[in-house]
Amino acid sequence: MFTWNGTRFLGEAEGKDTKAINVDKISQLERNLSEDFARDEVTEYARAILFGNAFRLQELSTRGDFFTVKCVSTAIRIKAALVRTPDLFFVARYVKEGGDTAFGAKCIEVIAAAEGAVVVFPTVPSEKAEVVVDTKQSEAQGGAAGVSL
Question: For 54-105, what is each residue's pLDDT tens digit?
Fold first, then answer.
């Protein structure tokens, strides 16, 4: 649970050695959102974020879709942001090492704006990373290509 610019966020993290993050984890996130909302002092649902590290025993370049079709479908319904943790790693390392808080704020803004989609972070300014379009994830999301570093 964290707050940014007055918005409350509730996140779940899941890693899978040899497969994609499935509907079980996002269902748990949905239950946690409901339990949080049930508290007397809470008047609005928190924004949901699912952090996923799928196929973590494989090289990053050989990994498949990070989230199953059912997981993506549920994310769309509850307007949850889906974050691929390797993508988050690159932007977090850049912000931590370089102190570029403006870039960090942009990254948080894209997480906040991702409602039912895989988060596409801005390109890290100091790295000349190849941009890879994730067409498999695109098909699961109805055509919106996910882009990662």
Answer: 999 999 999 999 999 999 999 999 999 999 999 999 999 999 999 999 999 9
Question: Do residues 55 and 18 touch, judged by C-beta distance below 8 A?
Answer: yes
* C-beta of residue 71 within 8 angstroms of C-beta of residue 22: yes
Q: How far is Cα 24 from Cα 41, in angstroms, rounded to an integer?
A: 28
3-class DSSP state of 24: helix
Q: Are 82 and 50 in contact (CB under 8 A)?
A: yes
Q: Would you place residue 125 in the very low, low, confident or very high pLDDT band (cuts 50, 70, 90)? A: confident
How far from 108 is each of 16, 39, 94, 112, CA to CA, in Å?
24, 26, 14, 6
* Nearest partner of 27 among 85, 66, 73, judged by Cα: 73
Q: Are 131 and 87 in contact (CB under 8 A)?
A: no
Phi/psi for 148 (5° steps) reads: -135, 165
Greatest Cα pair distance in the chain? 48
Residues 45, 14, 103: CA angle, nearest 5 degrees: 70
